[in-house]
C-alpha cells in the first residue's frame, strides 16, 4: 500500500467515524425520550437512558458477586444496547399484560430491531444481534436483571401511586398475587440464575411491604 492509499484509507475511516458518531448521538437522544412506567422520587417517569445506566451498574455488580465466570465487560455492553429497539417500538409494560399483548410487544420490537440494524454502526449492530439471540449467558443474565429493576425504582421512590394509577392495584393482597404469577413466569425463563432469584424475591418482598405498609 502506498502512502497515498494509506492516507485515503485513513480519511475514509475518519469520515465513517464522524458519520456514525452523529448517528449514535441521534439514537441516544431519541432513547432518552422513551418513558418507562417507574417513577423517580420527584415524580418524573424513568427514561430508557436512565434505566440502561442503572441496569449496567446493577448487572455487573451482581455478576461479579454471584457469577464470576461471566464476562462483566460483555454484561455492561449488553446493558447498553438491550433496550435500543424501544427507540422505535416504545416501552411496553410487561407487568400485568396478556399473552396477546406480550406477543404484539415482541413483534413490534422485532420490527424496530430490523430498522435499527440498517442505521447503527457495525459493532453496535453485532452487539444488538448477539443480545437479541439470547444464546450467550451474559445476554440472558442482563435480560433477567432487567426484570428486577422496576421494583428497585419503586422502593427508592416510594411510588405506590405508580401501582394504583398505572395498574389499578389497590391492595397488597392483589399485588402479591399478581407478582407471584409474574415472577414465577420470569423465574421459569431463567432457571440457571437461582442465586440471584433469591435476591429478587427479597427485593419483591420489600417492594410489597413498603408500598402497602405491610408488617
Strand and helix map with partners:
Layout: H1 3-31, E1 35-39, E2 45-47, H2 48-66, H3 72-81, H4 86-89, H5 99-117, H6 122-133, H7 137-157, H8 160-167, H9 172-189, H10 194-212
Antiparallel strand pairs: 1-2
Helix pairs in contact: 2-3, 2-7, 3-7, 7-10, 9-10
Describe this structure in a few short sentences.
With 215 residues, the chain is mainly α. 74% of the residues lie in helices and 4% in strands.
What is the 3D shape? Answer: elongated
Largest sheet: 2 strands, antiparallel
In the CATH hierarchy, what is the architecture at level 2? Answer: Orthogonal Bundle
Helix share bin: over 70%
Provide the CATH top-level class.
Mainly Alpha
From the alpha carbons, calculate the radius of gyration and give it in angstroms: 20 Å
Question: What is the CATH superfamily classification?
Answer: Hypothetical protein af1432
Question: Which stretches of 5+ consecutive residues score pLDDT under 50?
Answer: none
> Roughly how many Å apart are the termini?
74 Å
Number of DSSP-assigned strands? 2
Protein model, in words:
This protein has helices at 3-31, 48-66, 72-81, 86-89, 99-117, 122-133, 137-157, 160-167, 172-189, 194-212, and strands at residues 35-39, 45-47. The mean pLDDT is 87. The chain is built from 10 helices and 2 strands, in the order αββααααααααα. The protein is 74% helix and 4% strand. It starts with a helix and ends with a helix. The protein has a single domain (47-212), classed as Hypothetical protein af1432. It has a two-stranded antiparallel sheet. The chain has 215 residues and is mainly alpha-helical.
Amino acid at each position: 500500500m502506498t502512502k497515498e492509499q494509506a492516507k485515503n484509507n485513513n480519511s475514509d475511516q475518519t469520515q465513517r467515524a464522524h458519520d456514525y458518531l452523529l448517528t449514535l448521538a441521534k439514537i441516544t437522544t431519541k432513547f432518552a425520550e422513551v418513558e418507562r412506567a417507574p417513577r423517580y422520587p420527584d415524580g418524573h417517569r424513568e427514561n430508557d437512558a436512565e434505566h440502561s445506566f442503572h441496569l449496567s451498574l446493577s448487572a455487573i455488580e451482581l455478576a461479579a458477586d454471584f457469577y464470576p465466570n461471566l464476562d462483566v465487560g460483555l454484561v455492561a455492553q449488553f446493558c447498553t444496547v438491550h433496550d435500543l429497539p424501544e427507540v422505535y417500538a416504545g416501552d411496553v409494560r410487561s407487568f400485568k399484560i396478556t399473552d396477546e399483548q406480550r406477543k404484539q410487544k415482541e413483534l413490534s420490537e422485532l420490527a424496530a430491531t430490523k430498522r435499527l440494524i440498517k442505521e447503527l454502526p457495525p459493532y453496535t449492530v453485532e452487539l444488538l444481534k448477539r443480545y437479541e439471540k439470547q444464546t450467550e449467558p451474559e445476554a440472558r443474565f442482563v435480560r433477567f436483571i432487567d426484570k428486577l429493576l422496576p421494583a428497585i425504582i419503586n422502593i427508592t421512590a416510594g411510588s405506590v401511586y405508580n401501582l394504583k394509577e398505572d395498574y389499578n392495584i389497590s391492595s397488597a393482597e392483589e399485588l402479591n398475587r399478581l407478582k407471584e404469577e409474574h415472577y414465577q413466569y420470569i423465574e421459569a425463563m431463567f432457571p440457571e440464575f437461582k442465586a440471584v432469584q433469591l435476591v429478587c424475591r427479597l427485593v419483591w418482598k420489600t417492594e410489597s411491604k413498603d408500598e402497602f405498609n405491610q408488617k
